[in-house]
Amino acid sequence: MGDLGNRAASRDSQASAGEGAHGVEAKNARLGEAENAHSVEAKSVNGVEAKSWPDRQKLDYLHPAATHHGHKHRAPESFDPETADLRSLMHHTSRTLRRTWIAQLEPWELTPFQWRALRTLSECDGDARPSAIADRLGITPRSATEVIDQLEAKGLVERSPDPKDRRATRVQLTEAGTATAHSILSEGTAHSEQYFAPLSPAEQAQLASLLRKLARTR
User: Which of the 8 DSSP states describes residue 72?
Assistant: First the structure.
């Protein structure tokens, strides 16, 4: 009986170990699938495909709610502007402006990405080819088509054949799209003035000059 009991206990121990190993393997497999899914999501967010790896940052800006699963960024509680270095100050300021801008677009039910496409059309006198919109936004033509579809569904843009090339298509702002673009631009200007109000006009000009210098070298 002693030998039988020991053999049974040994089999039970081996079975438990096998189940434990299987559980670990299953957990690792699930983690691997999650990482793969996150990788795919990072390359294509809400149908917007980046042309290159650096454009991941652009996707993060264009679809912050998607790339961060709907969680809003918040500045760390330990953030102290008096002791933060330049990089932290720039990051904090950028995130604050981004969150504010997303909130400003909510009444129009537009994402920052959709707004950029709308603004691009406005800057092109309300008429452009989809390829031009894609180039300006730094995205693939397919992604440009998708955002145009979204804006068209909202009644803000419309498509028409290109008079110079019947095989091509042009995108135009509708009256509603033009009015929306003007309203958002006006409100954006007001909010920017409010945000930068703590700086004197001379300080604002100096800040703009320094940022342009950085932009030209990057």
Answer: P
Q: How far apart are CA 42 and CA 22, in angstroms?
A: 30
Report field, pTM of the whole predicted structure over 0.70: no
CA distance 208 to 32: 45
For the segment 38-81, what is each residue's pLDDT rounded down to a tens digit?
443 334 444 444 444 344 444 443 444 443 334 444 544 577 88
DSSP code per residue over 186-215:
HHHHHHHHHHTTTS-HHHHHHHHHHHHHHH
Question: What is the C-alpha to C-alpha distance for residues 49 and 42, in angstroms, rounded to an integer?
Answer: 9
CA distance 103 to 123: 23
Q: How far apart are CA 193 and CA 136, in angstroms?
A: 26
What is the distance between the alpha carbons of residues 82 and 63, in angstroms, rounded to a whole number?
A: 31
Instruction: For 184-206, write each residue's pLDDT tens digit.
Output: 999 888 888 999 999 999 999 99
Exposure string of 111-126, with b = 16+ CB inside 10 Å and e = fewer, is: bbbbbbbbebbbebeb
CA gap 115, 62 in Å, rounded:
9
Distance CA 99, CA 174 (A): 28
Contacts of 92 (CB under 8 A, 6+ apart): 75, 79, 81, 84
Exposed e or buried b per residue across 59-81, where buried means at least 16 C-beta atoms within 10 angstroms of its C-beta:
bbbbbbebbeeeeeeeeeeeeee
